[in-house]
Amino acid sequence: MRIPAHSVCTAIRDDIVAGLYERGSRLTEELLARRYGVSRVPVREALRTLEAEGFVVTRRHAGACVAEPTEQEAADLLEMRMLLEPLGAARAAQRRTEVHLKVLRGLVRLGQERARRGPSEDLRSLGGWFHETLAQACGSPALTSTLGQLRHKIVWMYAVEAPVSPVESWAEHGAIVDAVARGDSERARAITALHTERATAAHRLRPPGAGDRADRVRTSQHSVNVSAFRH
């Protein structure tokens, strides 16, 4: 049985984002293969993909290492998101399917219900799912992929303060979905631009290694889920 490299890539990326591997630390094929319960072949392929995405760098005499983005590179991530998320929403207004709308509306209903109870980790997860679904609704695989990479890198590089008013934040989500449902590209773009600008103000750059493991690591060790590949 050969585990797809993209599954290994997802597992390594998630652990980098979660802070399990500190920026600048080495990523050896042997140790990664043992950790995720796979051979070195998918690990090698995964590291190449992660290098192309900017999560990994290859250094002379050290091999693969977790990247160490500069403050300017981190700031660029937020600026790119402020430009691309409104574009994605505008495209979604033109290209969304009924399935996308159903999922988005369901997330908004649940998010607004939870927001009335106050800030919570559930709200943060729901917000992530909302923006991921909105990106998928844009009908552009390249834009969807780019937005996904941006979200991962921003979570990796930044701590996010809870919004002052979760209810207001989810009201903006609802307004975005209304515009998308009506096919109003310009309104979807404008509301998303305002929402993204407000969200960006809540981001605080994480010092390298500061608080990563305590705040974000979900588990100390796991293997790639191979149940889907056993048939």
Automatic annotation (TrEMBL):
InterPro entries: GntR_C, TF_FadR/GntR_C, Tscrpt_reg_HTH_GntR, WH-like_DNA-bd_sf, WH_DNA-bd_sf. This is GntR family transcriptional regulator. The keyword Transcription applies. The keyword DNA-binding applies. CDD domains: WHTH_GntR. Residues 2-69 form the HTH gntR-type domain. It comes from the Bacteria. Keywords: DNA-binding, Transcription, Transcription regulation. It comes from Streptomyces gibsoniae. PANTHER family: GLUCONATE OPERON TRANSCRIPTIONAL REPRESSOR, TRANSCRIPTIONAL REGULATOR, GNTR FAMILY. Pfam families: FCD, GntR. Residues 205-231 are annotated as: Disordered. Residues 220-231 have a biased composition (Polar residues).
